[in-house]
Design brief:
Distance between the termini: 74 Å
Number of helices: 1
Structural class: mainly alpha
Helix content: over 70%
Shape: rod-shaped
Oligomer: single chain
Order of helices and strands: H
Length: 55
């Protein structure tokens, strides 16, 4: 059975890694969003170049 002492111990043992993981995931999410935006921009440039070649 899990009592209050065990819960406090679990939070103490795993709290810091969880906080660090959430922080890193948040940072990676922002970087991934930037990469996705760059890919969309490159896609637009490629489409524009292809349209000009087809004219």
């Amino acid at each position: 059975m899990i009592d209050a002492g065990n819960i406090v111990q679990l939070i103490g043992n795993f709290g810091f890694p969880i906080v660090v993981t959430i922080y890193l995931l948040h940072r990676f999410e922002n970087k991934i969003d930037s990469i996705v935006n760059a890919i969309h921009s490159m896609e637009n440039v490629v489409n524009t170049i292809e349209k000009k070649k087809g004219e």
